[in-house]
Amino acid sequence: MFVVAIAITACQPKTKTVPFDAATAKQQVTGILDSIYLAYNIKDTTQFMSLLTDDGLYLGTDPKEFWDKQTYSGLMNKKNCRYSFGKTNCR
Fold first, then answer.
1. Whole-model pTM above 0.90?
2. Could you state, in chain order, the average pLDDT of each consecutive group of 10 residues for the chain (91 residues)?
3. Which of 30, 39, 78, 85 could link 44 by a cystine bridge, Cβ 3.0 to 4.6 Å?
4. Residue 50 and residue 52: Cα distance in Å, rounded?
């Protein structure tokens, strides 16, 4: 029984501890959020959508507002079209 216990525990994968630098991670996250905010404010839909993941789910302020990236992209294009001067055929 003792040999079986040693064999089972010896076969377990060893976990490797990876160092984590909180300051660097915070700086990276802040940079991405700043880029998203800037792209949204200047109505650069292409840049904005490139910063979102393809498998993400995006939520609005209403419980019914729940979109995948493709649907959200369509909504952003429609919204930006309403506020952009000189664009035609927006609808």
1. no
2. 64 80 96 93 87 91 91 79 49 51
3. 39
4. 6
